[in-house]
Amino acid sequence: MDDIFVGRLMSDSIHTVTPDTLVEDAAELMLDNSIGSVVVVDEDGHLEGILTNTDFVTIVAKSKPKAQTTVERYMTTDVVTTGAQDSIRDVADAMLEHGFHHMPVVDEEDNVIGMITTKDLASYISTVQTPSPA
Prior knowledge:
Blueprint: H1 6-9, E1 16-17, H2 23-33, E2 37-41, E3 47-52, H3 53-62, E4 82-83, H4 88-98, E5 102-106, E6 112-117, H5 118-128
Parallel strand pairs: 1-2, 4-5
Antiparallel strand pairs: 2-3, 5-6
């Protein structure tokens, strides 16, 4: 596999917030733009941090008082799944097409037997990539 540099693959369409942005506003920005993170910058545009959708799990878990909203209200019900024997390429294509980071793996009766993630795919690619010459 030829070397492909980060600059060729990276997205340069980033969304930023400042440290004093309310988390609700950051969440709305992320939802409106279908993105998983916002970069936190100061007034001069220097990197201060990053806020990801994973951080919102912590925000909700630590919120006081606890909201009494059930998972059912926000869960996705039209879940796209894959099977254990499906090709990695097909799964990666589907994840890219739909913007997924997680895809449940089901058996023939739609029982969940696992989960494939973009982290799993990245890990796989790193093991099949030919090492650079030393």
